[in-house]
Amino acid sequence: MSQRIRQHKWWRGCALALIGLPAMVSAHGANAEIPSDNPHRSALDIAVDSAAKDYFRHRCHVGVSMAVVKGSHIYFYDYGSTSARKAVLPTPKSIYELASVTKTFTATLAAQAVVDGRMSLDGDFRHDLPGDYSNLAWNGQPITLRTLLTHRSGMPRDIPDTDALFAHKDAPDFAARMVALNKGFGREQFLAALHGTRLRSAPGERQVYSNAGFLVIGLGLEKVYGKTIDALLHQAITQPLGMTSTGLALDESEQPRLIQGYDRYGHPAPYHPQNAGAAWGLYASTEDMAKYVRWQLNDGDPVIHLSHQVLTGSVDDGEAMAWNVGNDHGQPIIWHGGGSFGMSSQVVLYPKQHEGFVLLANDTCAGTESALKAMAEAVETGK
Questions:
Q1: What's the pLDDT score for residue 173?
Q2: SS3 369
Q3: Which of 44, 166, 189, 192 is most buried (CB neighbours < 10 A)?
Q4: 222 near 228, Cβ under 8 Å?
């Protein structure tokens, strides 16, 4: 693998405002240069810089890190700051929350289980769970791996139930209330609550986003392999790929590289609860995620090939194993985004071009997740 880690370049005189909302643009105006390590040499550099300037027109944004994978080459770009209160440029080693991009890791493990003959897409998934969950069926129709992976299982969004909180997701205390609801709610509590869970629709009938469904997939993976989800992630993904800064928990030595996230009001946000797990609980750096993207572009790998196959819908508008599948200006595109209380993420793949992007940001401003995807699309079009 050829990597080019950009040398840091700061524009002097660039200071952040000391209030909650401000990122770089609010401190300097819409036309100000944003601190960056982009060397502005190649056509790719220029395309990235143009997309980043568009991104930072939204004054709420604080910082963003991007990795662009083109064949065997990887290029890193960082903009803005790790903090809204002082100018500290992120680096490829800065650690972010991946939020729901975690689901693609869980889905890849599930694809491995199908390839290994440990799971099936359309069998009764209750057989893969640790216990009797006869309740996870609708008029005798059980949940399946296919319906769980495509958010069509009928499972609630979360366990414990967060519907009342999501009805007021824009409330300033949303994150604090979510943290309080999940405090002390670990694996055993989830298993107990799962026995009392009732499906809200027939599996396969309609799509309703479900973190709980991916936690259920995680339980199934643990059962069929006899290992924890942490061990499976390490064994199948992070260790083989050399992703040394990726995991459901961070070592003490990694804590200083974990950056601060900010909510849509510019307030420092808490990190996800520990029980986010297989649904939205991973941390990673862009340096690590570039390795993951490069692997995801290897369609010759039977696990990757299976995980990108359309399960519902079509190649122009469908869902694979967690991944969204579509078309961008005639090119096949595969992507998945995520958002925690204070961070946003996107992984965007162009398999036919053998190109991919990972974008990690330390804010959850209105529209950040989609803006990250738009950055990748703009770079792909403009380079």
A1: 96
A2: helix
A3: 44
A4: yes
Q: Answer yes or no: is pLDDT of 24 > 90.
A: no
pLDDT digits (tens, 9 = 90+) for 352-372: 999 999 999 999 999 999 999
315: left (phi over 0), alpha (psi -120 to 50) or beta: alpha
Q: Tell me if 369 sits within 8 A of 97, measured CB to CB.
A: no
What are the residue ranges of helices labelled H in the chain?
A: 24-28, 43-55, 102-115, 145-149, 163-166, 174-182, 187-195, 211-225, 229-233, 239-241, 277-280, 286-296, 302-307, 368-382
> Which residue has tokens 């972010």?
96
Runs of H (alpha helix) within 14-150: 24-28, 43-55, 102-115, 145-149
- Name, in order, each residue with C-beta under 8 angstroms of 345's C-beta and a sequence gap of 6 or more: 96, 97, 98, 99, 100, 101, 337, 338, 339, 358, 359, 360, 361, 369, 372
| Structural domains of the chain, with CATH | 97-314+323-382 (3.40.710.10)
Query: 3-state SS of 206-255?
Result: CCCCCHHHHHHHHHHHHHHHCCCHHHHHHHHHHHHHCCCCCECCCCHHHH
The answer, yes or no, to whether residue 28 has pLDDT greater than 90, is: no
Please report which confidence band the pLDDT of residue 271 belongs to, taking 50, 70 and 90 as the band edges: very high
Instruction: Please count the other Cβ atoms lying within 10 Å of the Cβ belonging to residue 132.
Output: 9
